[in-house]
Each structure stands twice: as C-alpha cells, then as structure tokens.
Amino acid sequence: MTSKKFKIILWFLGILAAVFLVIFLYQLTQSESINSIMTLLMLLLGLILGGAIAFLASKKLTLQPPVITESSHTIAESMRKVFKIVSAEGQFQEIYNYEETTKLLNFIPSKKKALVIVQAKILVGYDFEKLKWEVDEGTRKVRLVDFPAPEILSTETDYKYYNMEEQFFNLFSKEDLAKIQQNSKHQVIEAAKKSHLPQVAAEQMRTLMTELLSSKNFLLENPGSITEKKNQLALKDGSGVGPA
Fold first, then answer.
1. Are strands 219-220 and 141-146 parallel, antiparallel or unpaired?
2. Given CB 3.0 to 4.6 Å as the disulfide criterion, which of 38, 44, 148, 213 pairs with 218?
3. Of 110, 98, 124, the residue nearest 195 (C-alpha)
4. Closest to 95 in 3D by CA, of 112, 118, 114
5. What distance lies between CA 151 and its chain's CA centroid?
6. CA distance 147 to 109
7. What is the pLDDT of residues 149-186, one digit of tens each?
C-alpha cells in the first residue's frame, strides 16, 4: 500500500469519525445522564488520540529520505621505487584488557574498562636496498657481505571492542581509544617477535636466494649469513626491535 492511498484512508476514517461524533452529540442533547457525559469524554479522548496517531503516521510516511553529502580529496605525498620481498605472513589474535580507575574529588572511585580483540596480519620480509654482496664472474660465485635482518613490512589490524564499561564522569575519549589501539598493536608486534615468524622468513629467503642464483648458474658462497639474523626482527622504518 502506497503512502498516498494510506493518507486517503486516514482522511476517510477521520471524516467518518467526525460524522459519528455529530450524530452522538445530537443524541446526547436528548439525554443529560452522567453516563452519557462520561461516554462523550471518552469518545473525545479516543478521537484526539486517534487523530494524533494518524497525524504522526502520516508524517512518518511523508518523511523525506536524508540527504547525504560525501567528499574526498586524495593527495599523493611521495612515491619512490623500492625492492622489498615478503617471505612470511603471520595471523595473530590478541586479547587486550584495558582498565582505568580514577577518583572524583580524590574520594569517589570511578572506573572505565574495555576488552579489545585485536586481529592482525603481519607481513615479514626483506628490504634489498640494504643488501650488500660481491660477485665473482670468473668462479660464478656470489658472496653476501651484509644481509639485513627480516623486517615487518606491513601490519594490518582490526579492533573489536567488547564489554566496554564507563561512568558518567569517566568516559572514553578519542585519546583513550587511540592509546588502546596503539598499546594493543604493540602487544601484537611483541608477540610476532617471540614467534617463529622471523625464522620462517629467513629460511624462505635462504631458499629463494639459493634457487634464484642456481638458475643463473651462480653459487651462493655463504647462505648461512641470511639466517644469522633470523632471531632479530626490524620494523619497516629500519629500527631494530632486538632479538626475539
């Protein structure tokens, strides 16, 4: 049923109610009993209530959909060529508990807390711009002078909040949520350091380098240098995070 037909029905019912009201008032003039007066009051109340409901329903049906305006401006700040290879991927899930207790007027305790489930995908690999090697064309051997430690090249996180409790004078702010996300992400990175992800990345890179050079008839002289730093994990900005 369309809104136009519904409004026509509402108007018809209103007119019909008005007609019955006129007839009832005419009959009431022939009687002065208290029951008739009470019935009239109830009828008037019902008519007013029905009219109000019909008016609100009519307004709801004629309500225009909201107008949404969106705009976006993308600015490319910088672009450069890189040579980075992902050699391992890890899926992590962190359960992070946050609780903060303050005292109002140094007397009344006020607490806010949240349980956050962090799901993260961490990609570990190598930045070949930091690689140093020597090539001996005569013997067709490649010697790795300095092979970098594995790095976290990308961290994708998703946060789901559960059991958030806050009080009127101690609410979560944007700074609180940003701190929660930063701290929970740090915990995920710490878990990645202690996992076997750096070792997996190092072994994969060792296999890749050996097979790649072998396909070109070159021999990798010191493949062990790739796995020497397998217990270290560096962030993508190059800052080391120490041994796992």
1. parallel
2. 213
3. 124
4. 118
5. 25
6. 55
7. 999 999 999 999 888 887 666 677 888 888 989 999 99
| Measured CA distances, 186 to 89, 90, 163, 183, 238 (Å) | 17, 15, 21, 5, 16
- Euclidean distance between CA atoms 216 and 110, whole angstroms: 68
Q: 3-state DSSP call for residue 123?
A: strand
Whether residue 145 contacts residue 133, with contact meaning beta carbons closer than 8 Å, is answered with yes
Reported as a single tens digit per residue, the pLDDT across 191-214 is 998 899 999 999 999 999 999 999
- The domain limits of the chain are 3-61, 84-243
Which strand ranges, in their side-by-side order, compose the sheet holding 132-136? 132-136, 141-146, 219-220
CA distances from 96 to 11, 73, 119, 148, 154 (A): 59, 34, 11, 32, 21
For residues 155 and 184, give the distance between their C-alpha atoms in angstroms, rounded to a whole number: 12
Name the average pLDDT for the chain. 77
Calculate the alpha carbon distances from 116 to 90, 91, 164, 187 in Å. 20, 17, 9, 12
